[in-house]
Write a structure and sequence with these properties.
Number of helices: 6
Strand order of the largest sheet: 1-2-4-3
Distance between the termini: 23 Å
Radius of gyration: 17 Å
Strand content: 15-25%
Oligomer: single chain
Number of domains: 2
CATH class of the largest domain: Alpha Beta
CATH architecture of the largest domain: 2-Layer Sandwich
Structural class: alpha+beta
């Protein structure tokens, strides 16, 4: 397990509507700083989530069962320290300078990396009404191919 700098918090998804569980868990995972973790609490084995994480965030997480039923499952999910993260308060140009492999992603999304590259990613996403989470995932995927 990765070195943790703070206590992991619990995310109890038993109270979340089924259609919202995985999106909530993915948002929680994506917001984790590198090397940090959270504890997922569920009323069944979240094995399908593990498969989905492996498919969508390959090599980005660690999965440790802390309790395995029969009525409560607890899993510690950690973001691996080597997983790159994108700071959306940085400008487009700052990210491209740090991670040149993100240039094709910005281009594919129609985001100006020339004259408009001086704007923070957050502002660009809001101005153009883009899906910020999907953009960040695409950027992280591009960086992960290093």
């Amino acid at each position: 397990m990765s070195q943790q700098t703070s206590q992991p918090f619990e995310l109890d998804v038993r109270v979340i509507p089924p259609r919202d569980k995985h999106p909530t868990i993915f948002r929680t995972f994506d917001a984790l700083p590198s090397g940090e973790s959270f504890i997922l609490v569920n009323d069944h084995d979240p094995r399908p989530l593990r498969y989905q994480l492996a498919a969508e965030r390959p090599n980005a997480f660690e999965w440790t069962y802390l309790a395995e039923g029969p009525t409560e499952w607890r899993v510690q999910i950690a973001r691996r320290a080597s997983t790159p993260t994108i700071d959306c308060s940085q400008t487009v140009n700052q990210i491209v300078t740090q991670y040149p492999e993100t240039l094709p992603v910005f281009t594919a999304w129609g985001i100006d990396t020339c004259c408009g590259g001086g704007h923070p990613v957050k502002a660009v996403v809001q101005r153009h009404q883009l899906d910020g989470e999907a953009l960040c995932n695409a950027l992280v995927t591009a960086i992960g191919t290093r």
